[in-house]
């Protein structure tokens, strides 16, 4: 991986020269994210990791607070991503260090879209729901990646639409990549209770057991988040939009619980026996236990018939009791995810806005390299959309991967270690679904097939 | 993968398991300073010992309350020692001062194992424990700079497996009926700890090391578990070879469990290393 030597004469590390910076595409508490392109003749081109000109997202970690060295977030990401290899998980292509300012850079394959932007585009620009076929495909891929993580004892702990990336034009067009492992961890043999890490998961996607202060939790917290994301894909609105009570060490979040209970009804000890042991259930009795909630009905919100397989799957993801909540492996087998007729509609998603005035140091001193274009995002002149609009042919989004390709991925995925110790103690039938899938496609045949081809002749041969 | 040794970077992918010759090879910069293979090994033994002993002190006294079980500390330390040994299959001691690398490995391992030790505390304890030795005077800044260099030297592979889990699993599953079991477990556990004074973790899969330790324990405690080993269907030649290596090591170095290598043995080697600039 990276070479931290400082390049000749300048203060810039040598590795920086293999990238051509395009601009800044994101910012978070951890640091900045840049879009760059690999220049010619760099070591990875030789290794086949990236090709010349291929876009790379570079995540720069800020030097964490004085005297703490490399942030635990960065350590977790490096440690886990260095071990992980799955089609539906973001690929770490390189790590770099700039010893001069002690900053750390992670280089990933660039993904043009994410579920946050896709949902927003449908809500604000198109005013149209995402077609059910696409929802199904996105959900299946998300579960496929998550099943891989869970069967390897990794909990993501921060699933939300903006962390679910979708590849743009190219070989992997439409493929989902689970990203941001800054909160993820291995839970096989924790040295300390997981709750020692403080609160995890953005509040809207946070499972009820976390909101009630569970000390020990499982991969089921990720499945709750998937349920919330599933509902959001259907309605284009976050399912439980609670207001976060900040600046409290207490995990108890009354407003968020309130939003959940209003839709799903009041949890009961009969249906969720371990509820009685959760700290906040006991301590905040008057707040939660006293209140009576009408069950408004999830089906009314997501507009699904109560008898439909999709509704059944969603309600199993939003099961209160984490032990009864459906696992990723089980969900992949669910009737709602059986292959179906592809939709025909093509939706064009906007590319990520790039701030071309920011350099790797994060300073905004560069002049814009291109003239601001007419369709630049309002309020930011320097946002230059790439000129050619891409078409993301929705029906193809990953659904084609349900056949042989994923079967191979399943077979290759190392399975959970010790028998009978899977999260939730529910027998997993890994890979069975993929194997029994009637449409087993060879990888070559389905790779990128029809993705950039609005006529998609090949697709019509397939019988979904 | 991160939770399965067979597909992890420790076993596969990055060729983390090495041959003995690769592990024993003295880096050019070190042999230029007149450091022999034996001396190279001595430094590693010495620093592993320091890490195990001092880290135990450090952690018992301050970081973890005593209630925390022994396993906690052992895994962090074992990971730290493994990092330490991996670094010197690629870097020289001349360039990477073992006196700084060792505590930094502990620092990094504590983060990886989600039991972070603050750099500030680490520096405080090194100063306290090695007050007499000028060469151990490091500041927080040194640790943090070295942390980055270590990440690079380790090629960012941070997940490490240890013999402790397979050891416990063996006892859990197969020997439970045996009455003298706790005796044997603890004895074998102690031997596993000692294997970190050698490079075994860089060469053999952790479960084979665990089996070798069980084998030694059973022989020394006069318990016949030949049948049990037969059922395992592992290559007993490898298990026996590892066992012989461990016994040879005990024989050769006769390390005092409290004090480590005698000063007159280690001091001349340490003096060959450049002191901090």
From TrEMBL, chain A:
Which residue stretches does the UniProt record annotate as biased composition, category Polar residues? Answer: 355-382, 455-464
Has the keyword Transcription been applied to this entry?
A: no
Spans annotated as Disordered: 355-386, 426-464
Kindly state which keywords UniProt assigns to this record, in alphabetical order: ATP-binding, Kinase, Nucleotide-binding, Phosphoprotein, Serine/threonine-protein kinase, Transferase
Gene Ontology molecular function terms on file? ATP binding; cyclin-dependent protein serine/threonine kinase activity; RNA polymerase II CTD heptapeptide repeat kinase activity
Q: What is its EC number?
A: 2.7.11.22, 2.7.11.23
Q: Which family does it belong to?
A: Belongs to the protein kinase superfamily. CMGC Ser/Thr protein kinase family. CDC2/CDKX subfamily.
State the name under which the record lists this protein. Answer: Cyclin-dependent kinase E-1
The species this protein was found in: Oryza barthii
UniProtKB/TrEMBL annotation, chain B:
The organism sits in which domain of life?
A: Eukaryota
- InterPro entries attached here? Cyclin-like_dom, Cyclin-like_sf, Cyclin/Ssn8, Cyclin_N
* A Gene Ontology molecular function term of the record: cyclin-dependent protein serine/threonine kinase regulator activity
SUPFAM superfamilies hit by this protein: Cyclin-like (SSF47954)
What GO terms describe the biological role, i.e. biological process, of this protein? regulation of transcription by RNA polymerase II
Q: Which CDD domains does the record cross-reference, listed alphabetically?
A: CYCLIN_AtCycC_rpt2
Q: Does the keyword Cell cycle apply?
A: no
Nucleus as UniProt keyword: no
Question: Which of UniProt's keywords are assigned here?
Answer: Cyclin
Q: Per its UniProt record, what Pfam families does this chain match?
A: Cyclin_N (PF00134)
Q: Which residue range or ranges hold the Cyclin-like domain?
A: 61-152, 170-248
> What family, per the record?
Belongs to the cyclin family.
This protein is called what?
Answer: Cyclin-like domain-containing protein
Q: Which organism is it from?
A: Oryza rufipogon (Brownbeard rice)
């Amino acid at each position: 991986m990276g070479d931290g030597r400082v390049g000749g004469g300048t203060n810039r590390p040598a590795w920086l020269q293999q990238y051509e910076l395009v601009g800044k595409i994101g910012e978070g508490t951890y640091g900045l994210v840049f879009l760059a392109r690999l220049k010619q003749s760099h070591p990875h081109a030789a290794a086949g990791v990236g090709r010349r000109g291929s876009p790379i997202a570079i995540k720069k970690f800020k030097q964490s607070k004085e005297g703490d060295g490399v942030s635990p977030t960065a350590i977790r990401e490096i440690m886990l991503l260095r071990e992980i290899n799955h089609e539906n998980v973001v690929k770490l292509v390189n790590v770099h260090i700039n010893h001069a300012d002690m900053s750390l850079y992670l280089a990933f394959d660039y993904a043009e879209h994410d579920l946050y932007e896709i949902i927003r585009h449908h809500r604000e620009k198109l005013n149209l729901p995402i077609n059910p076929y696409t929802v199904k495909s996105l959900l299946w891929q998300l579960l496929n990646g998550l099943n891989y993580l869970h069967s390897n004892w990794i909990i993501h702990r921060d699933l939300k639409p903006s962390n679910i990336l979708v590849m743009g034009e190219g070989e992997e067009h439409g493929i989902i990549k689970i990203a941001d492992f800054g909160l993820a961890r291995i839970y096989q043999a924790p040295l300390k209770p997981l709750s020692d890490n403080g609160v995890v998961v953005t509040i809207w996607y946070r499972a009820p057991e976390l909101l009630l202060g569970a000390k020990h939790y499982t991969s089921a917290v990720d499945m709750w988040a998937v349920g919330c994301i599933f509902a959001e894909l259907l309605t284009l609105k976050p399912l439980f939009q609670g207001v976060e009570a900040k600046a409290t060490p207490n995990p108890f979040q009354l407003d968020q619980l309130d939003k959940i209970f209003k839709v799903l009804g009041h949890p009961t000890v009969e249906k969720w026996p371990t509820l009685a042991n959760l700290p906040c259930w006991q301590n905040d009795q008057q707040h939660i236990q006293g209140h009576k909630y009408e069950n408004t009905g999830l089906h009314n919100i997501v507009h699904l018939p109560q008898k439909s397989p999709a509704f059944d799957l969603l309600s199993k993801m939003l099961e209160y009791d984490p032990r009864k909540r459906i696992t990723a492996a089980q969900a992949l087998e669910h009737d709602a995810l059986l292959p179906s007729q592809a939709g025909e509609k093509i939706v064009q998603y906007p590319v990520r806005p790039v701030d071309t005035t920011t350099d790797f140091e994060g300073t905004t001193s560069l002049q814009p390299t291109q003239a601001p274009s007419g369709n630049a995002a309002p309020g930011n002149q320097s946002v230059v959309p790439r000129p050619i609009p891409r078409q993301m042919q929705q029906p193809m989004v990953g659904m084609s991967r349900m056949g042989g390709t994923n079967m191979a991925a399943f077979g290759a995925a190392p399975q959970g270690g010790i028998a009978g110790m899977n999260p939730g103690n529910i027998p997993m039938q890994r890979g069975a679904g993929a194997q029994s899938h009637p449409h087993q496609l060879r990888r070559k045949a389905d790779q990128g097939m029809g993705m950039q081809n609005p006529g998609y002749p090949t697709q019509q041969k397939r019988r979904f | 993968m991160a939770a399965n040794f067979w597909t992890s970077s420790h076993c596969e992918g990055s060729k983390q398991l090495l041959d003995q010759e690769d592990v024993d090879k003295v880096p050019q910069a070190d042999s230029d300073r007149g450091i022999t293979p034996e001396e190279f090994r001595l430094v590693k033994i010495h620093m592993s010992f320091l890490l195990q002993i001092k880290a135990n002190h450090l952690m018992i006294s301050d970081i973890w309350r005593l209630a925390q079980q022994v396993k906690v500390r052992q895994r962090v330390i074992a990971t730290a020692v493994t990092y330490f040994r991996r670094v010197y299959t690629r870097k020289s001691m001349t360039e990477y001062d073992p006196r700084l690398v060792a505590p930094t490995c502990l620092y990094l391992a504590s983060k990886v194992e989600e039991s972070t030790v603050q750099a500030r505390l680490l520096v405080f304890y090194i100063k306290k424990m090695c007050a007499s030795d000028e060469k151990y005077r490091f500041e927080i800044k040194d640790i943090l700079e070295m942390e980055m260099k270590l990440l690079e030297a380790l090629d960012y592979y941070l997940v490490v497996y240890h013999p402790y889990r397979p050891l416990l699993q063996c006892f859990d599953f197969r020997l439970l009926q045996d009455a003298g079991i706790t005796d044997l477990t603890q004895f074998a556990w102690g031997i596993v700890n000692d294997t970190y004074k050698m490079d075994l973790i860089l060469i053999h899969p952790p479960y084979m090391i665990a089996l070798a330790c069980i084998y030694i324990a059973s022989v020394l405690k006069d318990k016949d578990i030949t049948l049990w080993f037969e059922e395992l269907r592992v290559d007993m030649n490898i298990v026996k070879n590892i066992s012989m290596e461990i016994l040879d090591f005990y024989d050769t170095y006769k390390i005092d469990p409290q004090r480590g290598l005698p000063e007159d043995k280690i001091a001349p080697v340490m003096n060959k290393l450049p002191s901090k600039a």
